[in-house]
Amino acid sequence: LLEIPGTLLVEKWSARLMMSRIMVTWGIVAALTAAVKTPMQFYWMRFGLGLAEAGFFPGVLVFLTHWFPNRDRSRAVAWFLIATPMAQIVSPKISNLLLRIGTDEVIAGVTVHHPEIMGLEGWQWMFVFWGLPAVVLGVVVIFMLPDRPRDANWLSSEERQALEQQLELEKAQRSAGRRMSLGEALRNPKVLLLAVAFC
After folding, report:
1. Is residue 67 exposed (0-12), middle (13-18) or buried (19+ Cβ within 10 Å)?
2. Cα–Cα distance for residue pair 27/128, rounded to 1 Å
3. Could you give the CA distance from residue 108 to residue 155 in angstroms, rounded to a whole number?
4. How far are the Cα atoms of 79, 82, 146 from residue 75, in angstroms, in the given order?
5. What pLDDT shows up at residue 3?
6. Is the separation of the CB atoms in 102 and 115 below 8 Å?
7. In the chain, which residues have pLDDT < 50?
8. pTM higher than 0.85 for the full model?
9. CB 56, CB 24: distance < 8 Å
10. Vertex 87, ends 104 and 78: CA angle to 5°?
11. Strands 110-113 and 104-107
C-alpha cells in the first residue's frame, strides 16, 4: 500500500531525502528488533520494517531515471539488482559468526562458551549489524547523493548540461505518449503479471 505513494514522493519531492529517510528508519527498526522479547513484539517489528522500507525499491528505480538515459539505464538497474544476490552470498557468513555470540559450541569434544558482548546474544547482534550500516549510509546519502545531474558538483558544466538535455528529451518523448489512469494500470495484464511475480 505504501510502495506507490513512496514512489510518487521520490518523483515529486527528493530522491535523496526519501531514500535517506527510508534507510535511517529501516536501520533503526532493524536494530531495535534486537530488543524484542515476545513473538507479538517480533511481528510488530517486522511490520514496522515493511512500513519503513516502503518505496525504496521503486524509489531507486525512479532515481535512476533522473540520472541515466535509456541507453545506460538497464546497466544501472542490473548493478542495483545484483546487490541482492551478492548480499545473500556474503551475509550468511557474517551472520554465522555473529550467531555464535552467547552460545556454547563443542569443538574436538570440548565445550567452548562464546560470551555475550555488552549483554547481547548473537541473534541480537545480527539485527544490530543489519541495522546500523543502513543508518550510517542513510546519513551519508543526505550529504553525498545529488538528486539530479544539475546538482552534481563533480560533473563539469558541459557534462551536466549534456546529461540534463538528454534526460529532458527522453522525458518529453515519454510525456507525448498516452498516459494510463490508475484504474487502467491496475487492470493492465503486464502490471498484474508483475504483481503476481512479486507475491
Report:
1. middle
2. 8
3. 59
4. 6, 11, 20
5. 73
6. yes
7. none
8. no
9. no
10. 170
11. antiparallel
